[in-house]
Design a protein that fits this description.
- The protein contains 19 helices and 2 strands.
- With 462 residues, it is mostly helical.
Length: 462
């Protein structure tokens, strides 16, 4: 499946001055991405590093984050995932929104996870690694190559929690509500600053800001503002609880959170889940899921993924061979092997494994998972690989499918905009434009309305 106008003829235009003279890639030629029959042909030996945009682009790119033209167009090789290397999510659930948070509207004080930064999967040319073979572990990229991500919301300078609390009080006092005044405050303060505003409001007026906001707002704008005022760890824990509470399970929410967060974030979410809801998240997962999907989520809950940024190319080769023998190379599938590798290896290591797998199998690992798995475990395994290759593209695609077609999956739209707003929403916006030939703001504007639209656009930086 392809989307009209995507990709543009000849691929995406190159950034000025990139690649440096003498380092131009000669494979694959524009519009032709078929795998060559000889091992080592795709990707180039040690290649697959997606160069980030140069400083002139105005913000750093996430490592593993392709510059325009940096990876094959969707659908251009057998079984290829669509849209930036991610599988489509047709018929994404559009169930009820998150609704009202549980008792205890102040949400407690949870530590805010540090900004995420992702290391690349290795330099473009790997000395001593001819034909994709390595006899010993190779060092990963130097520290200078590790690109930080960037959110659209940053802490406001000259911040005064008391002044902001007063603005919000005036906006909700008397007849009617000044929604624009509320938007101006919440969309331009970091999550940590919003927690301080909440505390100042109670100190100054003896009232709970969250209860006051809930009494003045309704619908999607209420859900969005309440999400912005939740500490980020609490919001993730609350989203997981909501996804497993009551009849049915929102598996895509479990995948989106548990398969994309850092070790520290996972551990804080698990602890918060226990302290706030008095429940063990592993027990809830076992009660709501089953089989290989259950085991994958339990593995993710441990928060024990290797986070060493140095890539061991010999291990990548061995893991790729192991995965091939567990799937394409045998009758049936050894699911536990896929779980072990994808749940424990660092993201840069997984990226190198994906490249080694292509050389061994003459097939992309994502398309092999397509053939060997189905349902939620397939989605979970793919999400892990997509985050290793290009995390912003994964979230860009989730945003696209939350708005594509009839109706809008507002809970997914709100959750991703809020949770990525201080991490990598800048990169997600750029990927969205590259993948769908329209801006994220344009699609939000055409799919939402009123104060809800104004607040979303203010968060994404429009």
């Amino acid at each position: 499946m392809s989307y009209p106008g995507y990709p543009p003829s000849g691929g995406y235009p190159a950034f000025p001055g990139y690649p440096p003279t003498g380092q131009e890639s000669v494979y694959p030629p524009a519009g032709q991405y078929s795998y060559p029959p000889v091992p080592g042909g795709y990707p180039p030996a040690g290649g697959g590093t997606y160069p980030a945009a140069p400083p002139t682009a105005g913000y750093p790119g996430a490592a593993g984050y392709p510059a325009p033209g940096g990876y094959p167009a969707p659908g251009s090789y057998p079984g290829a995932p669509q849209a930036g290397g991610m599988p489509p999510y047709p018929g994404a659930p559009t169930g009820p929104g998150f609704g009202v948070p549980p008792a205890g509207p102040s949400f407690g004080g949870y530590p805010q996870p540090p900004a995420q930064s992702y290391a690349g999967g290795g330099p473009a040319q790997i000395p001593g690694y001819p034909g994709g073979q390595a006899s010993s572990p190779m060092p990963g990229p130097p520290a200078a190559m590790v690109q930080c991500t960037q959110g659209t919301i940053i802490a406001a300078p000259n911040f005064d929690a008391g002044r902001d609390a007063e603005i919000l009080r005036k906006a909700m006092k008397g007849f009617g509500t000044d929604e624009q005044a509320i938007i101006n405050v919440v969309a331009n303060r970091s999550n940590d600053q919003r927690q301080k505003i909440k505390a100042a409001f109670k100190t100054m007026y003896g009232k709970d800001l969250i209860k006051d906001l809930k009494s003045e707002l309704s619908g999607n704008v209420e859900e969005l503002i309440l999400a912005l005022f939740m500490p980020s760890t609490y919001y993730d824990a609350w989203s997981l609880r909501h996804a497993m509470k009551g009849a049915g399970t929102q598996e895509r929410v479990l995948i989106e959170i548990l398969c994309t967060r850092t070790n520290q974030e996972i551990r804080e979410i698990v602890n918060c889940y226990k302290s706030e809801f008095g429940r063990d998240i592993e027990q809830d997962i076992r009660a709501d899921t089953s089989g290989h999907f259950e085991r994958l989520l339990i593995s993710m809950c441990q928060g024990n993924r290797d986070e060493n940024q140095t890539v061991d190319y010999q291990k990548a080769q061995e893991d790729a061979q192991r995965l091939y023998q567990a799937g394409e190379g045998k009758l049936g599938t050894d699911e536990s092997c896929f779980n072990m590798v994808l749940a424990s290896r660092s993201f840069p290591q997984l990226k190198a494994t994906v490249e080694a797998y292509s050389r061994i199998a003459n097939r992309d690992l994502l398309s092999s998972i397509d053939r060997e798995f189905s349902g939620n475990v397939e989605r979970g395994l793919k999400t892990i690989l997509q985050c290793a290759l290009n995390r912003p593209a994964f979230f860009a695609e989730r945003l696209y499918y939350s708005m594509k077609g009839a109706g809008t999956d507002d809970s997914t739209l709100i959750r991703i905009i809020v949770t990525r707003s201080e991490i990598d929403l800048v990169q997600i916006k750029q990927m969205f434009t590259q993948m769908y030939q329209k801006t994220l703001a344009t699609m939000i504007a055409s799919d939402t309305s009123g104060d809800y639209r104004r607040l979303l656009l203010a968060i994404v930086g429009q």
